[in-house]
Amino acid sequence: MRLPTILSGPVIRRVDPSTIYIWIALSRQIEIDAQLFQIDITGTDEENKYILLDIHTETKVFKAGEQLFIYLVKISPADSNFPPCTLLGYDLIFKRGRFVNNLGSYNLLNPDSPRSIVYGDLKYPSFYLNHENEPTNLLYGSCRKPHGQGDDALFAADVLVENKHLDLLERPNALFLMGDQIYADDVADPLFPILTELGKGLIGDSEIGKLHELLPENLYTQLHQVNGRQFLIKHLANFSTRKGDNHLITLGEYAAIYLFSWSPEIWDYIHENELLLSFQQLQEKNKLHFKLDKDEKTRLKELSMLEARYDEQIENIRDFVVSLSAARRLMANTPTYMIFDDHDMTDDWNISEKWTSSVRESSLGKHIIGNGLTAYWLFQGWGNEPEGFDQTFFQKVNSYIASTSIDSASYNDGLNYLWNYHSWHFIAPTVPKTVFLDTRTQREFDPRPKAIKLGRMIEETTRTPLLISKEGWEAISQKLIQSGWKSKTPLNIVSPTPFYGMGLIESFLHKYVYPFKVLGFPVQTSFDFDGWKYNGKGFHAFINQIASWDPAYCVLLSGDVHFSSSVKSEVQFRSGKKHSFYQFTSSPIHNESFTGLWGALMKSVLWLNARKRREQSLYRSCGDSYTLTLGKSDVNPDKRLLWEEKINYHSFEDGSVAETKNSIGYLEVEKGKLENTLLMTVDYGENVE
User: Fold this and answer.
1) ∠261-265-270 over CA atoms, to 5°?
2) Mean pLDDT by 10-residue block, N- to C-terminus, for the chain (689 residues)?
3) pLDDT digits 0-9 by tens, 100-133
4) 583 pairs with which residues across the strands?
5) Taking CA 158 as the corner, what is the angle to CA 152 and CA 160, rounded to the nearest 5 degrees?
6) From 107, 539, 553, 648, which residue has the greatest number of CB atoms within 10 Å?
7) Burial class (CB within 10 angstroms; exposed 0-12, middle 13-18, buried 19+) of 264
8) Residue among 227, 205, 210, 229 at smallest CA distance from 219
9) Do residues 69 and 76 make contact, with C-beta atoms less than 8 angstroms apart?
10) How far apart (Å, rounded) are the C-alpha atoms in residues 102 and 114?
């Protein structure tokens, strides 16, 4: 299997006045250099329009497999800082022996090519650094699944940049991907054989021996069959996902889904090599697993269900592929910062102490999370904060990947290091600075059971965790101080899970959906009680932490919940101090969930309740026991309340306070004025503000 040279990228990653990082994935090891240009967007003289800047280039490469090399190119100015509010263009130079190529050699700089990564008439991919006195324009969103319903909102974001690429007052200067960049636990049937085959080509044979040690011999066949992994995932890995039929397991598979999600070249390779199998070919090649193998009638029924699922998924995938070039161009021209949520590893990742300990005690479960974390670092984490990963980190990850046996010291040392690593949070050097929270590996659990009521039934369940522990907040505060941020100035915070904005959805599920679930009706939602508001102590810790930082105002950006909303909260503390929070949620980018009957019912409920939410403020308070209470309190706050807040939902142009279609947020900030827009593809009509 000879893969294309450029597997994915380039992607602009961390950018500040003194450093620029560019990420790219190649199938072979090549020396990489870079060129940086200052672009005169007002000039008409093409010869003098691109001024070559004097720079220093340092390139690091990590070999993740036989045909997977991850590069991070660091560009520094030779003398002073890079010029702000000026369009900068870049090119990458590839040297191998006497052969020298650039991005144009791979047809990426040809504006007439469908694979071009340049905008308009520019010669190179471009970006800019905004000054603190200039507007800040942020794109933000989460949840992008290849076979998800609806259109890919990254296409709409690419159209925005195309239209604004010469207007530095309105062009986005950062892209925030806030979780579920991949769905490791929910892989489409048509993609599964491709990912397993591509994964082997990327990594090589180093994973084969480990898989044989991790799995019983009698289950090894279904490991490579479509629809064959749910049993392995549930009973051997101890995962809780209900969609694990094709769950990713190997590092190669995790890498392959990233490449497929970001790179049109991979789809070209799949198409040219006829790797996409028909449903009939799956049967002929014995690549289809049957769970209900009792009799011919039962088997035919399952076969029909699987074929219908396959047909629906392949249509969604073909629609998704159309947006790949747009997504790649957007990331090549916009500084991009990313943080994980659960689906980047598996659904319900670290949702409870029981889940975490159970998976950690499973050799297979622990191995899968190790592969997911390794892939996350390679494709997302490394570029967020490159200087935060030292030589020890590189050595541990390399020893984990290179090991051929799960009994080796290098394997276990590297795997334990990844599981115990809790510094995935980072500060993005945007204006104002942005704190990216890790709400998955810094959790604190309460093992006491909690009673819940579903309809007329009362059950006990595990309590929701503190999404960030005391030690986690201390580590975040230390990074924020080291970043140079000062109190009394604005601050952005990215949390994959929203702080506000779930009340309407929660009420709908409780009142209309869960009663049917109790009665035995098949009900599926994309909503988990795994958020900030479900643990009063954790929510108070967040509120209190922000108050101690004391920003001028705080903008909260989130995704996860598969709907978009805007909320303002004004919090008054026992001490009399007040703080304002502005919560903007945008989700999903490509994975509409509230469709069909339940989607229509939920939208009706949202519409009926929208007027009440628009015209009235909601009140919530927190007492000494950390119990969150809805309604305006008549208690003297000096005596019992830790704080009280007033919450207001903001409506979109159509009057709704929540949007469930695929979208990506576009937040414009100028002199403290916030303007939020949801970008959608043209199939949904005009952009919604």
Assistant:
1) 85
2) 94 97 97 97 77 97 97 95 94 94 96 95 95 91 96 97 96 97 98 96 90 92 95 96 96 98 95 94 94 81 94 96 97 98 96 94 98 98 97 97 94 97 97 97 82 58 84 98 96 94 56 50 49 89 96 96 92 92 96 73 63 72 89 64 91 80 95 92 43
3) 999 999 999 999 999 999 999 999 999 999 888 8
4) 556, 567
5) 115
6) 539
7) buried
8) 229
9) no
10) 18
Sign of CA dihedral 608, 614, 617, 621: positive
CA dist., res. 206 & res. 225, Å (int): 21
What count of other Cβ atoms lies within 10 Å of the Cβ of residue 78? 8
**Token pair for residue 593?**
């969930």
CA angle 130, 132, 136 (to 5 degrees): 55
Helix 391-402 and helix 363-376: axis angle, to 10°?
130
In 3-state terms, what secondary structure has residue 81? coil
Contact yes or no for 142/148 (Cβ under 8 A) = no
| Cα–Cα distances in angstroms (integers) from residue 652 to residues 22, 102, 142, 143, 668, in the given order | 36, 45, 20, 21, 16
- pTM of the predicted protein model: 0.94
Q: Do the Cβ atoms of 654 and 638 come closer than 8 Å? A: no
* Kind of pairing between the strands at 434-436 and 31-39: unpaired
Neighbour-count burial of 294, counting CB atoms closer than 10 A to its CB (0-12 exposed, 13-18 middle, 19+ buried): exposed
CA–CA separation, 354 vs 360, rounded Å?
10
Residue linked to tokens 């319903």: 149
Which residue bears the tokens 């009394």?
A: 488
What's the rounded Cα separation, in Å, for the pair 667 and 557? Answer: 10
Residue 207's CB is within 10 A of a number of other CB atoms, namely 23
Instruction: Count CB-CB contacts under 10 A for residue 245.
Output: 24
Which residue ranges make up each domain of the chain?
A: 426-684
**SS3 string of 114-157?**
CCCCCCCCCCCCEECCCCCCCCEEEEEECCECCCCECCCHHHHH
